[in-house]
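pasting for the record
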Amino acid sequence: MNNVVRLEHVFKHYTFGEQQVQALIDVTLNINHGDFLAIAGPSGSGKSTLLNLIGCIDIPSRGKIFIADQDVAGRTPDQLAELRARTIGFIFQTFNLLPVLSAEENVEYPLLQFKELSAKERRLRVAEYLGIVGLSKFARHRPNQLSGGQRQRVAIARALTTQPKIVLADEPTANLDHKTGEGVLQLMKEINGSFKTTFIFSTHDPRVMSMASRLVHIEDGQVVGEDVKEDEKDPGG
């Protein structure tokens, strides 16, 4: 099966005191291996909730979610953490780098829980991914010595270093100027093409939407439409 993510009739509600808020309503969505997909919608539409569910940070109120053919229902927090660590990389709009660590130490950080990797294997992998994002010369720099674009490239390398099937990017260009944002998006598109890593964005940035091969529109917690670029469609279908 080519699906890397499958949502079947997913609902998510939150309870605030006596009030219940429906964040997602009956969402069914298949995301294929190698997709460069953007979930687009206004603030409060449910796109971040959807990303959190795909990222196993939250669980649905109803419905089923499969990540890499694994049903996430009924898993313990530890099992979800393990699935997250080995299957999903995260890129945030605020970069979320640890300020006391160098670029290479930030990239290495998620690998420390992979007990099967030796220190040498970790170092080689970190060097490889810093090279991919063009920051080999900045390996010893701390985040405060880097520009916004460089910090986001460190965050991309950190997301990729675990060799995940899926990278989730929540508004990754929000804190970057136009030119820097374009460069970061182009880098992610190249990585998607080279490694077939599935990228899933939550965004309302027109640049991200125009670069996505699939665009899922969400409003008021419901999927209201989808666009697939002609040149990205499966020639067999």
